[in-house]
What we know:
Layout: E1 2-5, E2 12-19, E3 25-32, H1 35-45, H2 50-57, H3 69-82
Antiparallel strand pairs: 1-2, 2-3
Amino acid sequence: MRYTYIPRGVCSRQINLELDENGKITDCEFIGGCAGNTQGVCVLVKGMDAQEAVMKLKGIDCRGRGTSCPDQLANALEEALEMI
C-alpha cells in the first residue's frame, strides 16, 4: 500500500511510504528537508515493522519545535497502519 503524508512543523514537505500487507516498510521517501538525514532515516526503517519504527521515532524533537522529521514519519506510519 502506498501512502502520502504532509508533515507539519518541519522542513520536509512530503513523506511517501509503502507498506506491505503485514505492516513492514518497503519504501520511504522524504521530499525536502535535510537530505542526508532523511535519506538515512529511510534506509534505517526500510524492512522494519512499521509499529516498531513508530515506537523508536515518536517524540524525537528538532531544535525545540516539538517535532522532527523522524517524529513526522512516526505520525505518517501510524496513519498508514490504520488503513491496512
